[in-house]
Amino acid sequence: MSETVRTGYHEVFCGHLPQADRLVEPPFAALVDSQQSGLDAEKLSSATDKLIARAFHRGDNGFWFNSLHDQYKTVTKPEAN
C-alpha cells in the first residue's frame, strides 16, 4: 500500500519527491507497528490520528503538502472528488 501511495504522490507532487517519501514511509510503518500484536481498531485509530496530525500537519495551510493537495483536489482533479 505504501508503494502505491508513494507512486501517486510522485505523480502529483513531482517537485517535492524527498518530502513526499518522508510523508509515506514513517506513517505507514507506524500503522503497521500499531497492529503487530494483532488487529486492534483502537490502536489503529490512534496511530491514524497521530499520523494525520504529525505527518500531514492537519490544519496548517502553510505546510507544502496541504496547499498542493488542496490545489490537486480543487483544480487538477476535482471531478474525482
Task: Please tell me about this protein's structure.
With 81 residues, this protein is an all-alpha fold. It has one domain. Helices cover 68% and strands 0% of the residues. The chain contains four helices and no strands. The mean pLDDT is 85.
- Biggest pleated sheet: none
Radius of gyration: 14 Å
Name the helicity range: 55-70%
Could you report the average pLDDT, rounded to the nearest whole number? 85
Instruction: List unreliable stretches of 5+ residues.
Output: none
Total discrete domains: 1
Strand-helix topology:
Elements (H helix, E strand, L loop, with lengths): L1 H11 L4 H17 L7 H14 L9 H13 L5
Helix pairs in contact: 1-2
In short:
Helix content is 68%, strand content 0%.
Defining traits:
81 residues; mainly alpha
